[in-house]
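Exercise 7. Predict the joint structure of the components listed below.
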Amino acid sequence: MKLLSRTVSWVLLVSVVPAAMLLVMGALVAFNVYAFTVSPVTAVKIAIGVVPTVLVLGRGLWVLAAKIDTPVHGVPVREHEQPELWALVRRFAAAAGTAPPDDIHLTAEANAGVVEDTRLLGLISTRRHLFIGAPLLAGLSAAQFAAVLTHELAHYSNRDTRFAGVAYRSRRAFAHTMNTVNRNDYLQRALHFLLRHAAARALRASRSLSRRQEIAADQAAAVAVGSAATVAAFRELAPIAGSWDAFLNNHLVAGWAAGYLPADPFGGYGRLRASLHDELAKLRANPPHEADPDDTHPPMSERIAAIDALRAPGTMRVPAGSALGLLRDPLPLLDAALLDALVPEARTKRRVDWPTLVRVGGIASLTEHTGQVLATAARLTGRPPSPHTLLDALDAGLLTELCPTDQPEAPRVRRERARLIVREGLFGAVVTTLTDAGAVVWRESWPSVGEMRLDERYRVPLPDLVDAAVADRPDTAGLRALLDSAGRPHGRQGHRGTATRNEDSRPDGIPQGGEAPWPVGQGVHRGRAPRGPDRVDPPGGPHGQPGRDGARPTRPAGR
Amino acid sequence: MDPTVNPAEMVPGLPDLPAVDVTRWGMPPKNALSTDLSRPVPVIASAVAAARARDWRPAAELLNRSYGDWAMRAAAVHALGEAAADDGTWLEAWRAQTGGDRHLAVVEAHGLFWLAWKLRGNRPGEQTRADQHDAFNQMVLRSEAAALKATELAPDDPTPWCTLVTLARGRGYDNNAFGTIWRELQARDPLHRTGHEFALMYLSPDGPGSYDALFAFAERAAAASPSLAFLVVQAAYDYEDYNEKIWKDQRVHRALDVIQRWLATPAGGGGVYANSDKRWAAYGLVSADRGAEAVPLFTQLGTDASGRPWEDFGDNAVDVFDSCRRRACTA
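Solution:
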């Protein structure tokens, strides 16, 4: 009875907006038809105002009535390949009082979800999909995973998903219509006003309804798996999302530009999580509150308190250990889900172990200008391209010439630009040579992407030596000595210690954004304070705002 | 008003910009216009000219002589800084001779900020290469360090603090860091003109957000001194992309009246920043449909098309200046 009344009130509420739209549309058309019978000339005049409005409403209603098929993504998980996972899903679907999904897909997102394909305002469901994020399997225990799963499945038994589809469409139709309304047209502006107020109530009511449904789903999870595992699962979601984001943005793509991907991404993700222990513990203790009023979920802290208060012991048995234990041969499947989420080019990358990835990615990030600068040095001096040739060119006072440009620039600007680029090129060349000679070693350094260290035999501040070589009065002696001694065979290979000046001391791998995140060796590389915000549009210079001539900086969305 | 938009360029057949002969109003022809920002003040112009000819002495003398006249010092350092960013030879000669002093330090810091901009270029972020962003960030850090050093050499001088205010946005200071610098500047010169101008830029929202705080800042400053009334026009200029009606706002019209009265006084009309006030007033009057009042200002500006707001339009600065004065003449 309770379920029925909830369903009825839901359907009534979400149909308010389309019904109002249909009513207004019908009234407008009827009025215009009536006007035509009275005075065709006046009717045509009226139609000029009415037709655009009817079109806008019709378009909005079309959005509402069109069928919605979920674009299926991720890697399909077949029952005969993963019987244990499917058995668990079936068991907990039964516990939640609903049928199991028609298919399961493994995705690379840090969440799980249930979606239905629907027809006719969401009243008819044709297919249910269960999406499971690989990071959840990697980060949750089997019991925690079962709690998340039960929560998602419980939306079925409440008939939430089906009517959530209606609510979703109703909102979408509403938003579409509101965006299409021409605010300069008086009639349409009046319509905008009416719809806004009529729909506001329905939207608010649907929001509180769907919040209640979330709580019902939480209860279902707690009853099946127990309050403790459910709370633990919910507390784990933010740490997984945060660390996964960092992993994707920094570590996974560390060797991307050089053509490499890790052979064992989830092993790396596990080490990243372990290294972020303290930060993740904070997130776990205080789940972040998403203060979005349109969010249909109640605040996480409230949900956790409510689940705790249930003190449910749990009625279902779940295998002990990690959720990965539910999968047969999990790593290839997780890997496939990850590759599926990347651009197709990902499949052409070479897969290497983490130490190799750190090295090739690190060197690639440091040598962006190296080839160009060495080639120019070779051309200027008539010698083969090598670090020594570059140092010769610098000693010959050819700093500016090493970075040819066709831009007309003032002398100091040109020289400083050359200094920055030659410095990077030289640094990359030296690091490459030292790496080849075994004098620089690269290694994993979670949570940073990796670090490089100079063998302790060379107690030299590498950044300072490079600075000296590109100074106005170049001093290349230090670098030459370093390169020469590293090139000589030595008897203590393998004994590598810490040269503190040359460590990359980035505290963690929280995402930097951007497409080529490679912080390795940045501390070494720059040898200076960390960079300011990347890619700023810095109005406030002597030029004021950069380019107001129609090229006024468009800032990234969401700022 | 968007002065760069010429209807005729967008849709052929639409009227072109007013075809007026500005020389009839006593204004120089377009090809005589100059964006050299050192020109408006003759003593600064001659010091900059000497510096560009690699003679540091007039610059050093000017800064030494005018120490305490913070308006003059800020204007001189701004213009000398640009010269230093183009060619630092004269700074090196100066350093070789004196071993470095407070005047050199402040020019050097400001010059590094100019250098950061010149390395970056003034195109929007997405049209700027990664190495240009990198160069900007590195050079801003060097400018910041140099400015902090300059504050130690001249503890009572607001100018290096002004450089820090100038680089605040590019450096990405948070409100606390900015507040600290701003208080230091205010303690040394509460009405510091350039400081206020760049503080307003720091405070300006990134997009169509709320401009209330910006106008509040500008109005507070304008209430403190008519020499800062231009800030209200500057705030309107920041806001006009999102709300053209701002030019009908009474706050803006009041500020335009105040600037015009201020320019009629000896302190306002004869000061180092007279031309700067004239530019903002002229731009604001044309935008606010009071172009006729801007004609005498453009006549007085003569060939000087330097400074803001024109310089914000980069290579189009002269075009914008010219189209603005033509609109004034036809108003």
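Discussion. DSSP finds 19 helices and eight strands in chain A.
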